[in-house]
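Entry for the shared binder. Reason: the reviewer on the internal report wants the predicted structure included alongside the sequence.
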Amino acid sequence: MGLTSVASATPPKAPRLPSLETSDDALLTLDQLWPRVPADTGLTLEQRITDKVSDAGNHFGNHLDEASHHVANFHIDGRGRRAQLHLGHGNEHLTVNFDGNVMFADGKAVVKARLQLALHGHNLELELPDVQVSRDSYRNEGMTEVNVSVLEKRF
């Protein structure tokens, strides 16, 4: 039994060394070779979340309006930090309308409300005092503080 084999070996190629010549591309910095991602000019995450919450609240308000046969209406403006609530119904004898505007600022909700009553053509409009609602704590117990200004000065 005999084995024969033929072996041929080619010497491996030597790796190419970079050229020592200086070109314009060799002098570029990494920032120039790989530029930054362009700045995003779209809405911020906070604005997108605010818009989504406003849309969900207004969607609920539209369903509330339809389900109540236009007796209750609710609208949210998230970017303006405002909400509006309207309750009202009436006929030729009695009409009752309540409008409330809520503004959220500095951790407080300020409610401005107005009540309109009409009885057989006699109208009565009441501008209710402003109500401020805020969250606070006393001796590590959470509480909701409601401030109603009974006396108001106007000049």
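Summary line for the report: The mean pLDDT is 84.
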